[in-house]
Amino acid sequence: MLERRQEPRAKSMFKSAYVQTEGGVQFVTLRNISVSGVCLDAFPGASQGDEVEFCIDASGLRKGTVCWVKDGLCGIVTTDSDAFESTPQQFPQRSVRLPLSVAVKLYVDGHREDATLRNISIRGACISSRGNFVSGQLVSTEIAGFCFELASVRWVKHGLFGLGFAGPIPPAVFRKLVAKIQEAPRSRPDERRFGGNTA
Length: 199
Known about the structure:
Elements lengths: L10 E11 L2 E10 L3 E5 L9 E5 L6 E9 L2 E6 L21 E9 L2 E10 L3 E5 L9 E6 L2 E12 L2 E5 L6 H13 L4 E2 L10
């Protein structure tokens, strides 16, 4: 078959990403990347021509347009002028952070404390709290009804701390967690978007 692509074929990848739509934040998996766009898991309601924002790395949100949807996948061509300056090999393997905010419960030494989630990934979360936490401290947390035991404090700074989960959250479970967070009354995309730290 004649190859009609005008650019090098995309490099296959398998890492966390998210898409920001009018309906909220959708956790997806990045499947491959090329100079002009990405292939992701098709998110609920994805349709050709949709204008979206997506994030695959620490550089933050990019604007794009859904150009195809097929077999559980979708292609998004970036509409940002700078496109992708990095090669796929240069993209960090650090888990992408979803900028969601919701009330959470912390449990430390048998005591409960209320706090606020600022962002979350499959490996950890950034939380704001008035408590006095220190690096290495073990904390259990409840987020939208999901419990994470023996998470460890990775860093503390200006009323925020990074929490590393005992193990990565399976993608299927993480999708359910993200959906539950967005159903909660106080949940919303963080106004700071991608500015926060995490574990």
